[in-house]
Every structure is written in C-alpha cells, then in structure tokens.
Amino acid sequence: MSLSPTDLPAPEGPGSVSRAPNLPARFTDTFTSRYVTTGDLRLHAVTGGEGPALLLLAGWPQTWYAWRLLMPALARDFHVVAADPRGVGLSDKPLDGYDTGTLARDMVALMDSLGHRRFAMVGHDIGMWTGYALAADHPDRLDRLAVAEATIPGLSPTPPLLGSREANDRLWHFAFNRLTDVNEQLVRGREHLYFGHQFATKSAKALPDYAVQHYVDTLAADPEALRSSFAFYRALDTTIAQNQRRRSRRLSLPVLAIGGAENLGASVGATMKPAADHVESLVLPGCGHYPAEEAPEAMLSALTAFLAPYRDKQAAPHAPTTRGSEAQ
Fold it and tell me: Which CA distances in Å does 222 have to 117, 148, 204, 210, 269?
C-alpha cells in the first residue's frame, strides 16, 4: 500500500530543491521537494503554486531542474509538478520499466497520489515520448499536451544508419546508449566528457556551467544513475512496438509542438501531426535542444498562451471571472 506523501521523509541531497544551485530568487518560498510512492516505486517531484495541475517532465540527461526558470511564473496560474521519472535524480532506479508505457503509468500514479485526476502536461525530449504515451494510453487524464525537441521512435520515420554527417552528429548517442555494458564502462569516470559533449553540441546558446555541472554530478554520484540513464534507450524495442500500436489511436486533445530552430525545428510538429488532430507547431529562433533553459521567456510565453483555455476552464466554475485558481 502506498504511503501518503506527508508520511515520507523530506528529500535531501543535490537533487532536491534545498541543494539545487542558482535557483531563481525566492524559489524555495513556493516550491518544495517531496517523495511520492506509487506501488513499490518512490518518485521525487518538486511541487508548488495554486491552480489546476500542470505536470512538467524533462528529458535525458536532465532532471526536474531543467524547468527552474519557468516554474515561478507558471506557479501563478497552476499547481506545478516537476517530476523526476524512474531512474532520474532522487527517484528510485529499478532495473526495468523504462519503456514509455510504464513511464506513462508511473506519471498517472504520481498525479493520482497528489490528488490530480485531470491535468495538463509539458514534456521535453524523453518527456515528450512519455507525454505521447500518456495521451494515447490514458486519454481521460490529459487536458492539453505541450511537447518539445524530440521525434518519437516508432512514430517518426527511422533515420538511416549511414545518414548525413549532420544527422550522425545529432543522433549517434541513440546507438551508443542502447549498448549493453560497454557504454557504461566507457563513460564511468568520464561523465563530464560524455554528457558535457551532449549539452555543448545540442545547444545553440550554451547552458550555464553550473547547470551542466549539476546534471553531470547527479549522474556521476551513483552508478545506478548512469545505468538508468541508458535504460530509456535500451527499452526502445519495447517502446517502438508500443508506439506502432498507438498510431491507430489518434490524439484528440490540443497539442503544442515546440522545436528549436537550431536543432529539430519544425520536425517536432511534423512528428505530432500524423498522431494528433489538433497540433500547433512553434519554432523558437536562435534556440537548440533545450528551450526551457536556452529560451525560457519565449517558451513561457508560448506555454502561457497554449495553457490559458485549460486554466480558465478549470477556474470558471469557481469564480465569475476567467482568471482565478482552483486547488485540486
């Protein structure tokens, strides 16, 4: 039986709010770390704000910390839940369950434990994979879905093995991360070289050194964290098979697809349009793979406009104005 979030010890360590570096001013006045158990899995989430629920899910190799620049403004209108999925940050790191069907069920269970039956979601990178799975497998749970900077294995066309140099430079980590053991042996002790290269080559505007160091330190702190970071890719055969089945169930909810002009650009929208009936595509100029950190103001503006109907619909039964908040 799951414990109540209030029964669990407060998260500690570098992955928690209390130990995260260079947070926006007064961040800890609004947001706290908490553990939530879902069955036999313990997940870490950073929560705060008032209003309808909004789930934020980052991608590889990041944690909840990727959303830090957007969270204070979003918390004015939403109860924000920035989650670390299984295998990430302070969440548990089991040996299996890294396919997107399981990851989506984890997030549904997390939101159930926090008292949120229906919610909106923003997913980046692998968080976008999970967002698609959640919308397809649990259509009654999501009101709106925003996704950023990924294509979806099993939904998007598979790039050729011997593609262009540009494609190879952008995608080579997929094959490397799927290896069984040798990748861990090669990366362990060289985490800053490998993950630092990923951040440096996929961003148009360099992420701050302290942020890159935070992500690298989190991955280097525990051998299980490194294994888990590759587990999402080792589960791709299962995820691809799931997505091939999901293709027959088109999404009916509104979808916002965000790409960085210097990375995936319009291909994010092109990925979602065959899968969903209502897709709005946005390309952020001068931005690479990490829009929440490279272009936080532009991304916040896009999310605020996209989520406004969800915010107002949730507030309407409780207030005579279109603005307001609802505690779920």
Answer: 34, 28, 30, 19, 36
